[in-house]
Amino acid sequence: MAPNARITMAEIAERSGVSLATVSLVLRDKPGAGTDTRQRVLEVARELGYIPRQQISPYTPALTTIGLILKAEPGRVPQANRFYSHVVAGIEMVCRRQHTNLLFATMTVDADSYPLELPRLLLEEDAADGLLLVGAFLDETLIRVIGHRSVPIVLVDAYARSGAFDAVISDNLAGACRVVTHLVEQGHRHIALVGSHPKAYPSIQERHDGYLQALSSHGIADHYVALCHLLDGDEVAGATADLLRGNPQITAIFGVNDEVAIQVMDVARHLGRKVPEDLSVCGFDNIDLAGCVSPSLTTMHVDKIGMGRLGVQLLINRVEHPESNPVRAVVCPELVERQSVCAI
DSSP letter at 290? Predict the structure, then answer.
């Protein structure tokens, strides 16, 4: 049977043995149909060659093409980033449902996420109707470049030294307070932080501040910080080893992200310290790997896919209401308790 308009939802309903309403729910990706029913309807639709008509976005037809600019860290494939790959998935999910074109480019950054080069997608005025900048720090030079453009821009887990931009961020300070408070509640008083330094990315600085705030609010004066660049695994490992050798009284470590926390556990094992019996470890972000390591990692879950979805929604709002005040959407992380922490 030839594909496209000759195939109707009524034919799919008849072949699938379900109601027309159920077929409509499934093909519009709406809730209300069971998993088996949904799978059967989709299989029948594929077999019949059904191609749905592209629906005009109910939000804004002006936003037909979105440019996604993702930071590319030195020595790493950006699409393989365990955090931002989920953010990109959230962005793509909304664009697909709204039939919005999505252009992709990377922006090379240094170890502190400052841009080293600018992609053409950022410089060409007519390349996209709106831009999403993911994971980069906008310095004064970059702000001057994009300041001459009329295209709306939304930052997703990205920060600007100045200027007013719509943005989606995680509540890093409150999240860090929560995870350190969890360690305090488990009886720990000598708690260290690994992964900060004076020029760290703003989200990491906020987690550092949250660590200090939590200790202060519980009357704990002792704090221990291992300064290192997150992208340099050898630097993280060396700083962690020096910290533990120089401060054997430490019973818990907060890694500013999950990758750092996992490295901390590896260093602790090499130094003969068992996790969590001798050293409790927490992370932040809840990347997929956090639940797979042994012991599984206690961490703060960040809704990364949700951050991507919100970024597109803010861009839609900016296109529809260009004169509205800047909007900052804050995603609240949640504590995920696993096996890397024990009470003392």
Answer: G
